[in-house]
Design brief:
This protein has a single domain, classed as TIM Barrel (Alpha-Beta Barrel). The longest helix has 24 residues, at 280-303. The protein has helices at 7-16, 28-40, 51-57, 59-72, 87-95, 110-126, 157-167, 193-202, 218-226, 239-247, 257-273, 280-303; strands at residues 2-3, 20-24, 45-50, 76-84, 100-103, 130-135, 140-142, 145-147, 171-174, 208-210, 250-255. It has an eight-stranded parallel β-barrel with strand order 2-3-4-5-6-9-10-11, surrounded by nine helices. It has a two-stranded antiparallel sheet with strand order 7-8. It has 309 residues and is of the alpha/beta class. Strand 9 (171-174), helix 8 (193-202) and strand 10 form a beta-alpha-beta unit. The chain is 49% helix and 17% strand. It is built from twelve helices and eleven strands. Helix 2 (28-40) crosses helix 12, helix 5 (87-95) runs parallel beside helix 6 and helix 9 packs parallel to helix 11. Bound molecules: 1,3-dihydroxyacetonephosphate, glyceraldehyde-3-phosphate and zinc ion (2 copies). One zinc ion binds next to loops. It catalyses: beta-D-fructose 1,6-bisphosphate = D-glyceraldehyde 3-phosphate + dihydroxyacetone phosphate. This is Fructose-bisphosphate aldolase. Dihydroxyacetone phosphate binds at residues 181, 212-214, 254-257.
């Protein structure tokens, strides 16, 4: 039980052809649900915090919650900054004890992305912290940034090689057709596996990261809609597509939307079925249980990282 970097996790995942789940967290119930699931099935974990989540939960609280989760479990946890948009934010998280940071320079031009990523890598590595970067542009919503489908660009394999060589990053998030949020595909879900395979061949033994990789589990979308929600036409990345990606060098699979849907669906259901209840422990507890069971399913049936501690 320790706070660790992702180095060993990724090495084993790459060799084993499976992926580690990177789950977005912003409160106690979400953290507990995820960590309890990982403990039950002996899986390493990446808990990731976006700038928005850090602001919401406050840095000091988040750090203590994750430390408490480590004391309470036998799980190796990497604490990761998700979509850091500046050197300063990455530095703050490194100084706060994060073991991994993402610098997302995908909105910058190529040379600027390289420049800042390199700066983050130098500071992070000097402090024993690993760095994820992003090349290419995913469609969808992250915090206030909304990238339309037309502005999304897939990662260029040759550029990925140049980028990794020149920045010294430890892992790279690529764009092959996934997107953030609950509306990933209009028609048939499709990922560019040819591009992924090309990148993996050009960068052997190098961990690739898939953002926007929630399945948007129909059970929870239906639960939200049945109990007063309004989330029509939501669609995510089917599970078999994620399993296939894990076989091609994808070592980290990011999941946020599925956590949100599980928590919200379970709470909506509980409140509708128990209108006289107003004890937060009751409905938040339902949400926490839903997250635990969903994450267990992900780890065992989709990511394949159970019993790898
Ligand atoms: O990539 C993500 C966080 O960085 C989350 O993606 P989803 O919206 O598919 O859960
Ligand atoms: O990549 C986006 C994640 O889902 C985090 O979302 P957020 O920035 O709204 O916390
Ligand atoms: Zn991005
Ligand atoms: Zn993301």
């Amino acid at each position: 039980m320790a706070l660790v970097t992702t180095t060993e996790m990724f090495k084993k995942a790459y060799e084993g052809g499976y992926a580690i789940g990177a789950f977005n967290v912003n409160n106690m119930e979400i953290i507990q649900g995820i960590v309890d699931a990982a403990r039950e099935v002996n899986s390493p974990l990446i808990l990731q915090v976006s700038a928005g989540a850090r602001k919401y939960a406050k840095p000091a609280y988040l750090k203590k919650l994750v430390e408490a989760a480590i004391i309470d479990s036998d799980v190796d946890i990497a604490l990761h900054l998700d979509h850091g948009d500046s050197f300063e934010l990455c530095k703050q998280c490194i100084d706060d004890g994060f073991t991994s940071v993402m610098f997302d320079g995908s909105a910058l031009d190529y040379e600027e992305n390289i420049k800042v990523t390199k700066q983050v890598v130098e500071y992070a590595h000097a402090h024993g912290v690993v760095v994820e970067a992003e090349l290419g542009k995913l469609a969808g919503v992250e915090d206030e940034v909304n990238v339309s489908a037309e502005d999304a660009t897939y990662t260029d394999p040759d550029q990925a090689v140049d980028f990794v060589k020149r920045t010294g990053v430890d892992s790279l998030a690529i764009a092959i057709g996934t997107s953030h949020g609950a509306y990933k595909f209009q028609g048939e879900p499709k990922l560019d596996y040819e591009r992924l395979e090309k990148i993996t061949n050009l960068l052997p033994n190098f961990p690739i990261v898939l953002h926007g990789a929630s399945t948007v589990i129909p059970e929870f979308v239906e639960m939200c809609n049945k109990y007063g929600g309004d989330i029509p036409g939501a669609q995510g990345v089917p599970e078999d597509m994620l399993r296939r990606a894990a076989k091609f060098g994808v070592c980290k699979i990011n999941i946020d939307t599925d956590l949100r849907l599980a928590l919200t669906g379970a709470i909506r259901k509980y409140l509708v079925e128990n209108p006289s209840q107003f004890d937060p422990r009751k409905y938040l507890g339902e949400g926490r249980t839903a997250i635990r069971e969903m994450v267990k399913h992900k780890i065992v049936d989709v990511l394949g990282c159970d019993n790898t501690l």
